[in-house]
Amino acid sequence: MDSSSVICHYQTLSTKRNGMVMPSWWLEDADLIAAEQKYTFFKPPRETIAMVKAGEVVKLIFVFESGDPEAPRAERMWVVVESIEADGRFIGRLNNQPSWIKDLKLADQVTFDASNIINTEHDDDDNLIERYIKRCFVTNRILKDGARVAYLYREAPENERDSGWRFTANDESDEYMDDSKNVALVSVINPAAWVNSWMLQGAIASSVSPCWGQRRSRQFGIGCFFGRFGRRGAGG
């Protein structure tokens, strides 16, 4: 790790290690998280970050060490940008009072770079995360047992986070379906990725029901039915 990285990630000193005073916190490299979780973790693109100016606020993830078992892994907090250096580094002041981090306080100086920024004042609400944030019900035959998606349908969503999509392996018994422990609420991108049709995947992602009311769709090669989740569709 070079000296600029040390400055970027470690700001406030608190503990000693090998005779050197060390901080309890560091900044998360959000680029790594976004690459691994592109459908569930929002990270503004570089062109959006390039729009940030002095006086604006950006959000960073402050990871920290704590002996408290109740403590979270990190705190997400806003920083007011004071200046942007020629090498792309940002210098700002913390705009929140940390709830858990003891060696960091409101108005402390923080130096960071674009990889640490997770929100800006210029973020577009029409992004990949918002499109896939909806949830769907999937049985554990698919999630845990590895069964293929055999039947799916879409009904009226139960709440604003519900996409209305329901996925089953079509071999679940009535007793199995009546047990809530056998059903999970997950991001719609998960089961969509298991369906062997890019056309159907796109329809699911865009909240369109391509086979509404059909027992079986030859176009997509997968059974589709509709009704309340927990009632089995006809056909096999």
From TrEMBL:
Residues 49-118 form the DUF2314 domain. It comes from the Bacteria. InterPro entries: DUF2314, Imm33_dom. Residues 136-188 form the Immunity protein Imm33 domain. Pfam families: DUF2314 (PF10077), Imm33 (PF09951). Coiled coil: none annotated. PANTHER family: DUF2185 DOMAIN-CONTAINING PROTEIN, SIMILAR TO GLYOXYLASE I FAMILY PROTEIN. This is DUF2185 domain-containing protein. The lineage of its organism: Bacteria, Pseudomonadati, Pseudomonadota, Betaproteobacteria, Burkholderiales.
